[in-house]
């Protein structure tokens, strides 16, 4: 039944939709099977659809440049603007991927600077850092900026 249904509507039909669509056929064939048992059946017969990759790599650690030690690994900040951490994440939209660079204060968890754009060029991060520097309140204090 499963293979026939997938041939008819498409091979990417997942387990929930399959169970819902085939429920009437199961009743007509006097087959009593719940959702979990149906999933177990699909798994045993290699009929589950493989999950698609839903993440994007934003950090490339496999490069020829010098890799510095993580000097802030066990560092716990004791005041605001003592340690800033930066990262890039992606946001999937109808028009493709956009990238968000953030500079966050590790003590207060406040976002000090950010930049959203459709590329991952250096300017994405430097613009976020420039905004963070502009937003500093304690300019006379020492600051550590940590990034991947």
From TrEMBL:
<dbReference type="InterPro" id="IPR036397">
    <property type="entry name" value="RNaseH_sf"/>
</dbReference>
<dbReference type="Pfam" id="PF00665">
    <property type="entry name" value="rve"/>
</dbReference>
<protein>
    <submittedName>
        <fullName>Integrase-like protein</fullName>
    </submittedName>
</protein>
<dbReference type="GO" id="GO:0015074">
    <property type="term" value="P:DNA integration"/>
</dbReference>
<feature type="domain" description="Integrase catalytic">
    <location>
        <begin position="76"/>
        <end position="148"/>
    </location>
</feature>
<dbReference type="GO" id="GO:0003676">
    <property type="term" value="F:nucleic acid binding"/>
</dbReference>
<dbReference type="InterPro" id="IPR001584">
    <property type="entry name" value="Integrase_cat-core"/>
</dbReference>
<dbReference type="InterPro" id="IPR012337">
    <property type="entry name" value="RNaseH-like_sf"/>
</dbReference>
<dbReference type="InterPro" id="IPR050900">
    <property type="entry name" value="Transposase_IS3/IS150/IS904"/>
</dbReference>
């Amino acid at each position: 039944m499963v293979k026939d249904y997938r041939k008819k509507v498409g091979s990417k039909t997942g387990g929930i939709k399959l169970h819902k669509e085939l429920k009437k056929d199961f009743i007509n064939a006097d087959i009593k099977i719940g959702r979990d048992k149906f999933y177990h059946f699909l798994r045993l017969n290699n009929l589950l659809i493989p999950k698609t990759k839903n993440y994007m790599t934003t950090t490339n650690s496999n490069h020829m440049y010098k890799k510095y030690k993580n000097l802030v690994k066990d560092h716990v900040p004791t005041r605001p603007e003592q340690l800033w951490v930066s990262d890039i994440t992606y946001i999937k939209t109808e028009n493709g991927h956009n990238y968000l660079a953030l500079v966050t204060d590790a003590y207060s968890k406040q976002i000090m600077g950010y930049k959203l754009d459709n590329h991952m060029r250096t300017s994405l991060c430097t613009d976020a850092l420039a905004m963070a520097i502009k937003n500093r309140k304690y300019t006379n204090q020492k600051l550590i900026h940590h990034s991947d």
